[in-house]
Amino acid sequence: MSGDLKGKRIIVTREAGQAKSFSEKIRELGGIPIEIPLLRINSITASNEQDVFNRLKSYDWIIFTSANGVNCFFAAYDKNGGHFGEQVKIAAVGHKTDLALQRFGYTADLVPDTYDAESLAAIFLPIYQNREQILLVRGSRSLDILPKKFTERGIAFDSIEVYETMINGGIKERLHEVIQKNAFDYLTFTSPSTVNAFIDLYGEPVPVPCVCIGTTTKKAASAAGFNQLITAKTFTIEGMLEAMIQD
């Protein structure tokens, strides 16, 4: 696929720490990444952190919905001297979340073929055994898809917020400059939070091709008023690149 995005100028809105790998892949394909990180990710200490880690060995399932959640959870894990029980199984919402787990020496036991919370719920609920203890690892802006699914089924679970997603107000001037010059070919969104941050910082949607990592992000972009939407078939950065190549 080398050169398939030759000369294409692509706005990367991911948090700065995650933008690098996306930008590198764009360059490998001949494209020109324009990094405008709309979000900042900060680790936080949850009010129930001590309680969760005191009973960490009792959980049968630990569910991670993002790589950020993995990274921030294991920072707290080390701080609290955490230990999983021998019975523990791990679920991850997608391949990149599983890769983050592997960097800490763990591999997910359950990963859906389609990388979103709806798909994870679809394969998790049929195998869940009554009375299994669940810990859901989340961020401050995580969607409520899994909590709602569990509540509807009467499944008890614990939840811990290990990071907060903040709008990067310092990038506002740069965003306005790039958008108003119209010097780009694609705008990329990797989560509903990036969509919401764009609207917060710019004030309105723009009539340009927007590439969304998946259907949940596409729904958020559509609801925000974006109307030139392209969705990756595989809900990954690689899927987004392929969608731009095929466009």
TrEMBL record:
<comment type="pathway">
    <text>Porphyrin-containing compound metabolism; protoporphyrin-IX biosynthesis; coproporphyrinogen-III from 5-aminolevulinate: step 3/4.</text>
</comment>
<dbReference type="GO" id="GO:0004852">
    <property type="term" value="F:uroporphyrinogen-III synthase activity"/>
</dbReference>
<dbReference type="GO" id="GO:0006780">
    <property type="term" value="P:uroporphyrinogen III biosynthetic process"/>
</dbReference>
<keyword id="KW-0627">Porphyrin biosynthesis</keyword>
<dbReference type="GO" id="GO:0006782">
    <property type="term" value="P:protoporphyrinogen IX biosynthetic process"/>
</dbReference>
<comment type="function">
    <text>Catalyzes cyclization of the linear tetrapyrrole, hydroxymethylbilane, to the macrocyclic uroporphyrinogen III.</text>
</comment>
<feature type="domain" description="Tetrapyrrole biosynthesis uroporphyrinogen III synthase">
    <location>
        <begin position="21"/>
        <end position="242"/>
    </location>
</feature>
<dbReference type="InterPro" id="IPR003754">
    <property type="entry name" value="4pyrrol_synth_uPrphyn_synth"/>
</dbReference>
<comment type="similarity">
    <text>Belongs to the uroporphyrinogen-III synthase family.</text>
</comment>
<dbReference type="InterPro" id="IPR036108">
    <property type="entry name" value="4pyrrol_syn_uPrphyn_synt_sf"/>
</dbReference>
<protein>
    <recommendedName>
        <fullName>Uroporphyrinogen-III synthase</fullName>
        <ecNumber>4.2.1.75</ecNumber>
    </recommendedName>
</protein>
<dbReference type="InterPro" id="IPR039793">
    <property type="entry name" value="UROS/Hem4"/>
</dbReference>
<dbReference type="Pfam" id="PF02602">
    <property type="entry name" value="HEM4"/>
</dbReference>
<keyword id="KW-0456">Lyase</keyword>
